[in-house]
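Progress note, sequence design subtask.
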C-alpha cells in the first residue's frame, strides 16, 4: 500500500507475527516516484504516440480508417513522462487501454528520446493501468520500475539488462 506526497512514495510494509498479531512499519523512500498516467494527450505527445504506435502495429489492429485511429488515440491511450535514465530528458510512457488490457494489466510502451524530435521504442510490456512506480535504485542505465503492486497480486518489477527490459517477480 502506498501514498503519494509531492511526487514521493511512502511504502507501508505489514508483516504478521507467528502469534497472529501484526507489526506495521512505515518507510519513506524519498528517491521513489509515482508515475501516474494522464488523459487526454497534449498535441505534441499525441503526435509522437501516433507515429510510434503506428510503427508498432497498434493501428493495424484498430482499423485503417483515420476516424478509428483518432478515436483509439483519444479514448484508449493514456500517457506519462519520467526521466528513467537520468539523461535530463523524460521518456514517454503510453498505457494502451481497451482491448489491450487483461489480467496482467494494460499494454505499456516506453519511448526514449534519441535526438531532438526522434524517439525509439525502449520497452513494450504490461503494467497496472493507473500508475508505475520508479524506484530510486538503478539497474544498469535505467531505474527499476514497479509495474504492478495491487493487493492480492504479486509485485512485478521492470528491470534492465543490456538496455533491454524484462519483468521480474521476486521468488519466481
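Output:
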Amino acid at each position: 500500500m502506498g501514498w503519494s506526497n509531492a511526487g514521493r512514495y511512502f511504502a507501508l510494509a505489514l508483516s504478521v507475527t507467528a502469534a497472529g498479531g501484526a507489526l506495521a512499519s512505515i518507510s519513506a523512500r524519498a528517491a521513489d516516484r509515482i508515475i501516474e498516467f494522464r488523459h487526454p494527450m497534449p498535441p505534441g505527445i499525441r503526435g509522437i504516440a501516433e507515429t510510434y504506435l503506428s510503427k508498432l502495429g497498434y493501428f493495424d489492429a484498430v482499423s485503417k480508417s483515420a476516424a478509428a485511429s483518432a478515436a483509439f488515440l483519444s479514448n484508449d491511450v493514456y500517457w506519462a513522462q519520467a526521466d528513467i535514465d537520468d539523461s535530463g530528458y523524460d521518456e514517454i510512457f503510453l498505457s494502451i487501454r481497451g482491448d489491450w488490457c487483461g489480467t496482467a494489466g494494460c499494454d505499456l510502451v516506453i519511448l526514449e528520446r534519441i535526438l531532438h524530435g526522434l524517439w525509439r521504442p525502449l520497452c513494450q510490456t504490461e503494467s497496472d493501468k493507473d500508475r508505475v512506480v520508479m524506484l530510486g535504485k538503478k539497474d544498469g542505465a535505467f531505474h527499476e520500475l514497479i509495474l504492478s503492486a495491487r493487493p492480492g497480486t504479486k509485485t512485478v518489477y521492470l528491470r534492465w539488462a543490456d538496455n533491454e527490459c524484462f519483468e521480474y517477480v521476486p521468488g519466481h
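Residues 43-55 form the longest helix (13 residues). Work on this subtask will continue into the next period as scheduled.
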